[in-house]
């Protein structure tokens, strides 16, 4: 089994030490580096080639949001999980829009942080759809008209099947759940998701969920409030 290469980024040395102690004990996690500020991240990523970056949002020189945007704009970017002390935070939403695969609260139990890193490394989002919805509604107060119009224009590039898959992703459903609900194989679902990402220029499933929310597709669907897990 190949260990997940993890980079820790937090300006608090005690937090980094705690995370390092907690994560380093897992057989499938290898901590390849630590950074105290977002300004150090790109050089460290080049040197250590992490699979996942655990990124604090609030740092003194370059914050985690800016560092996430810079990382996700690169070729072969690592996945980013944002660390935050707030559940519903405008900056968390901005980090997700920038391409972070999810967020975890700093007081989350260690086992759950480990599980989040493993899920993201495997290509799955960390967020439950319920949390995503609450976060989006709190931070955005509903999608403004201009954002909705832009999102609808982008979604128009999808064919009917891709649109169905995109809505299911927005509901937080796993590939297996989407396959069962739409009567297709898991491999076909993965193909559709890849095409959606390519067509819309998106980074990950979280961004698909945000776009379907912005476009109002989850409100149109009768299952918008369900948690897909």
UniProtKB/TrEMBL annotation:
Query: Taking every annotated instance into account, which residue ranges of this chain make up the domain Response regulatory?
Result: 5-121
The HTH luxR-type domain extends over 151-216
List GO molecular-function terms, semicolon-separated. Answer: DNA binding
What InterPro entries does its record include? CheY-like_superfamily, NreC/VraR/RcsB-like_REC, Sig_transdc_resp-reg_C-effctor, Sig_transdc_resp-reg_receiver, Tscrpt_reg_LuxR_C, WalR-like
UniProt-listed CDD domains: LuxR_C_like, REC_NarL-like
Identify one Pfam family in the record. Answer: GerE
Keyword Transcription regulation annotated = yes
Entry's Gene Ontology BP terms: phosphorelay signal transduction system; regulation of DNA-templated transcription
Residue numbers of 4-aspartylphosphate PTMs: 56
Ordered alphabetically, the record's keywords are: DNA-binding, Phosphoprotein, Transcription, Transcription regulation
The record ties this protein, via Gene3D superfamilies, to: 3.40.50.2300
Task: Specify the protein name.
Answer: DNA-binding response regulator
Q: State the organism's lineage.
A: Bacteria, Bacillati, Actinomycetota, Actinomycetes, Kitasatosporales
């Amino acid at each position: 089994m190949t260990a997940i290469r993890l980079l820790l980024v937090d300006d608090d040395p005690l937090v980094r030490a705690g995370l390092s102690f907690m994560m380093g004990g897992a057989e499938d996690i290898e901590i390849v580096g630590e950074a105290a500020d977002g300004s150090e991240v790109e050089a460290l990523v080049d040197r250590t080639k992490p699979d996942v970056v655990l990124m604090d949002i609030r740092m003194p020189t370059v914050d985690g949001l800016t560092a996430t945007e810079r990382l996700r704009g690169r070729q072969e970017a690592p996945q980013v999980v944002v660390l935050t002390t707030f559940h519903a935070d405008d900056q968390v939403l901005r980090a997700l829009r920038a391409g972070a695969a999810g967020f975890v609260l700093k007081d989350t139990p260690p086992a759950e942080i480990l599980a989040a890193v493993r899920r993201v490394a495997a290509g799955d989002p960390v967020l439950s759809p319920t949390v995503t919805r609450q976060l989006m509604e709190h931070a955005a107060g509903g999608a403004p008209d201009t954002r909705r119009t832009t999102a609808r224009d982008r979604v128009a590039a999808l064919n009917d099947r891709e649109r169905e898959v995109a809505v299911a992703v927005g509901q937080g459903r796993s590939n297996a759940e989407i396959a069962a609900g739409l009567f297709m194989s898991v491999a076909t679902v993965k193909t559709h998701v890849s095409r959606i990402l390519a067509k819309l220029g998106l980074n990950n499933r979280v961004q698909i969920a945000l776009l379907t929310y912005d476009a109002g597709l989850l409100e149109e669907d009768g299952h918008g409030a369900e948690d897909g897990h």
